[in-house]
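no rush on this but wanted to send it before i forget. what follows is a protein written twice so to speak, once as letters and once as structure tokens for the fold. mainly i need to know what kind of three dimensional shape the backbone takes. thanks a lot i owe you, the record is right below.
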Amino acid sequence: MTRFETRADAYVDRVESALAARLPAGDAAPASLHEAMRYAVLGGGKRIRPLLCYATGETLGIAADELDDPACAVELVHGFSLVHDNLPAMDDDDLRRGRPTVHKAFGTALAILAGDALQTLAFGILAGGTPPAARLGMLRTLAGATGSTGMTGGQVMDLEAEGRAIPIAELEELNRLKTGCLIRAAVLMACDARPGLAPDTRQALDTYATHTGLAFQIRDDLLDVEGDAALTGKAGGADAAHGKSTWPALLGLEAARERAESAYARAMQALQPLGDHAEPLRWMAERIVYRDR
């Protein structure tokens, strides 16, 4: 079996094309809204979540064309979350992916509406396919990951934690909701494509996704401190400027790196029952933990 690394770029190209096809045309009315939506989503990005969806598909023997819709849906929800997170009322960021954030390029009101429209488009894409049982599972998974007990709830916790040091357990729960839930959804929506999947296999992949999501956020926190802005595409030091509790702030850089390594090891352990079939997911976790952007 060839390494997933040899196919990752092709999957990125695949989801880029799929997203461009599913987003409204930039010149279709209302053109300003559709242009902002395309700007938000098609402006580059690592496409970690779609890649996790396709990597899970390979692990389970699911064809890529069965996963194009969930891969796009999870990236559209991620895009919506970035647009709203960057707003002046949230993180007030000027740059994302190396260029002006949506509210800087299009204005705050249009950025809010573009985020709203990206979210509804994601669920519309999932609702339109077959088989019904698989699509219903995907809808439930993504809705749970996005709502008040998922990513949105995590954003509230993040806002309420600004300016104070929070316990490590609270930080881990915040990360699980704000970042981890959507990474977990990327994996579990691929599982939903097989409604009869063995429960122990789904649980192993769920455990993998949970720990990989934590490792992802810890690495993000580290990059905010020591990353190269030319590579990350956003200004460093934003977390400290907003008084956020992060892994480096609470534990120090070295202990934060150790915590990421621990989460990575637990993710790898969860994949052991899946044997060589899980190589794509092993490669994805390694890429997440050791990335420089």
User: Anything to note?
Assistant: The mean pLDDT is 93. The domain at 5-289 is CATH 1.10.600.10 (Farnesyl Diphosphate Synthase). Residues 210 and 262 are 13 Å apart (CA to CA). The chain is about 70% helix and 0% strand.
